[in-house]
Structures are given as C-alpha cells and as structure tokens.
Design goal:
Distance between the termini: 40 Å
Radius of gyration: 21 Å
Number of strands: 10
CATH architecture of the largest domain: Up-down Bundle
Bound molecules: flavin-adenine dinucleotide
Strand order of the largest sheet: 1-4-5-8
Largest sheet: 4 strands, mixed
Length: 398
Amino acid sequence: MVDFNFTEEQELLRSTVRQFAEKEIAPKISEMLQKKRIPDSIINGMRKLNLFGMTVPEEFGGMGADAVTTGIAVEEISRADPTVSLPVMFLVHNAWSYLISKYAKPELKAEILPKIARGEILTGIASTEPNFGSDIGSMTTTAIRHGDKFILNGEKSFISLVRDIKENGGGYVTVAKTDPKKGTAGVTLFYVPYDPDKIEITPLEEMGREGSSWGALRFKDYPLSEKYIIGELNGGFKLIHEGFEFARALIAVISAATAMTCINNGVEYMKSRKAFGQPIGKNQGLQFQLAEDVAKMEAATTLGYKALWMYDEEQKNGKFSRFEVSKEIAIAKLLSTTWAFDAINDALQWHGAYGYTKNNPQELALRGVRSFQLAEGSREIMKLIIARETLGRDFMKS
Ligand SMILES: Cc1cc2nc3c(=O)[nH]c(=O)nc-3n(C[C@H](O)[C@H](O)[C@H](O)COP(=O)(O)OP(=O)(O)OC[C@H]3O[C@@H](n4cnc5c(N)ncnc54)[C@H](O)[C@@H]3O)c2cc1C
C-alpha cells in the first residue's frame, strides 16, 4: 500500500506552523540580518508552539512527534527563512534531542528533557574535529576513565549553535574515544552540558546562515559521570549515525522548501519583468529551466518525506534495516541539496542584477543551502553510502 496523505493532526500542525512562520518569522528576517542572531520573539514563539520539544516524549512535556511530523514543521519554517538559520537550529536541536530521548539514562532524561522541550536549553552535536570530519573513527578527543569519572579532553570544530548554547544554555551530544586502542569499537556518546569553565569556545565566521552561530569547542579536563553516557559505553559509533540520519533527512526537506520559495519568487519576477517587449517568463528557455527546477524540487520533497517515513518505520516497527534507511536518506540528502543549490542559482539568475544584490532572498538561500552539501555528512560521503549499499561492502576501499 502507498499512501501520500498526511494525517489530520499533521495538517493542523502544518497550518499552525505556517501561520506562525508567515506572521512571526518572515517579517523578522531583516532584523535577523541586522543583529546577526535569531530574534528572541521568534524563539519565544517557537517555545509556545512546543517546537523545541517535537521529538521529546509527551511524558517530559514534548510533542512526541515522529520524524515525518518533525519534517512538516521544519518545511514550514524553511519557507520563511531563506538564510536557513532557524531550520538549522530546529533540525540540530530536535534530531539530536531525539537521540537523548531514546538512549540517555533515566536520571539524565528526567533532568534535561523537560528543559529541552521548553526550549530552556538547546542541544548541539559535537563530532567534527580540526583534523577529522568524515572519518569519525580517527577522532582524537578522548574521555578516559579515572575512578568514577570520564575526563573529556580535545577539540571539536565547525560546530553549529555555539553562541546560542552559550547564551541560552544547553549541551552537546559529543563523541569521544573512551578506549582509543579499539578504534570505532572504543567510541562513546556523551551529553556534555555547556560549562564556561570547562569548555572554551572560539567563534568562526561563516559564509551564510546569518542568524546562526558556528565555532570550535575545546574541552579542558571536563569530568563526566556515567550519567552522561548516551547508550552503552563504547557503543557510540553506531548510535551517532541514527542522529546523523534523522538530521540528513530533515535537511533534504529543508533544502527543497528553501529552493521552492526562491523558485516562487522567480515566477513572480518572470511575470512582471519585461525584456524585448514581453515578460521574461514568455521565453521558453527560462520556462524549461523553471520546469526542471520545479520537477526536481517536487521529487526532492517526496524523497525527503520517504526518507523520514523509512526512518520512522525502522525506529518504530523495525520494518527496514539500518542500512536500507541509510541508503534512502543518503539519496534524499545528496539529490535535494545538489538540486536545491542549482535551482536557487537559477532563481537568482532570473532576477538579473537584482539577484546579485546583497541580502536578497535568493542570495541568502544560495549561501545558506550550500552548507548542507557538507554539514551532517558531505555529498561525497552520501555517494559512498549509496555505492556501498548498491555494490556491497567488498567494493569499498579498505
Ligand atoms: C555550516 C556547517 C555546519 C556544521 N555543523 C556541524 C556541527 O554542528 N557539528 C559537527 O560535528 N560538525 C559540523 N559540521 C562539520 C561537517 O559535519 C563536516 O564538514 C563534514 O562532515 C565533512 O568533514 P570535513 O569538513 O572535516 O571534511 P573532510 O572529511 O576532511 O573531507 C574533505 C573533503 O574530502 C571529501 N572526502 C572525504 N573522504 C572522502 C572519500 N572517502 N571519498 C571521497 N571524498 C571524500 C569530503 O566529502 C570533503 O569534500 C558543519 C559543517 C558546516 C559546513
């Protein structure tokens, strides 16, 4: 059976978030650009709608939503914020809070999940290091046991939300080696609360995502009790991919929604802008480009939701294997982020020189969406996953 319908509750959520996005997010983008941060009024509005608690179970005050429903909310948010700053905050926080909800120890869940759901604390992901990104197994950050504590030391780089977590409060799902001799079998996930005495932050300037923040984290002899282990000791390598995959599938939906907004802007412009005595939209050359971009974005959205649905089916019913889900999600992220970037570039071109002016939606979106060909797994890593699952592991480079 194939059913492309969303449920009544999902449609209701879509229209609620759409109204919020149109009224509270879209009009505040210029304020975001000016202040280079997400306005507090937007964060407060998201708190009221429980959008920081989407993946947190209801017993802790969250919405307990599945991945598809989470995708619906972020699709609507993405339509209103071409910089993708808010979609990034939403996706990182909700995808990685899901992992905490699923695998953290009961005492940690009771302590932090209600705050996460209320948006009092934000969740980030600290995996990449200055010398290793794609190759997670080569990380050098360690959390070595001393008595009843694990002492965390090392540096993580290119981490999203560093200023937001510093100012708002929160912590990072952090990957570290607890048994360095064992390679990927000696990797553990921790929840590491932000603590200014134990984490040094170095902000980084980035190409886009004006309202977001980015930077490096240095952990300095940070003692963590067992309570902060997510999942099993030395079981982190497998778990981290569950977080990445949720985030990747959300990125597929975000990229397509952002590009669709730019295409719609382009359509309006094509109807009104005249050249050689007629609206530029009457040129079949532009119509064909438009048609291809619309077709690709519809396919990308469908692939994104299929990826989220498979993730839900695997998580809830064990219907698909981890690897089947990885492959579909890699396909969705690879195609959506590539096609969306190209479609946004087309929409920028249709606007002529206006397209090249600073801070017009297409220019903002181009710089923002470009990040998704790297963040949460690069496009080359998506291709490696697809090839591995298609050819078989024997064909992977050893
Ligand atoms: C905007 C942004 C936000 C980010 N936010 C976070 C965050 O919040 N938390 C976090 O932990 N990380 C974050 N990252 C880091 C991101 O996850 C990494 O950039 C990504 O995983 C790639 O790692 P790398 O940059 O170290 O590149 P490398 O792994 O060093 O790779 C360099 C290049 O070589 C390619 N490559 C590597 N191996 C292969 C191979 N076997 N075959 C073919 N090509 C290969 C890569 O695709 C890439 O193009 C963010 C990055 C960006 C750009």
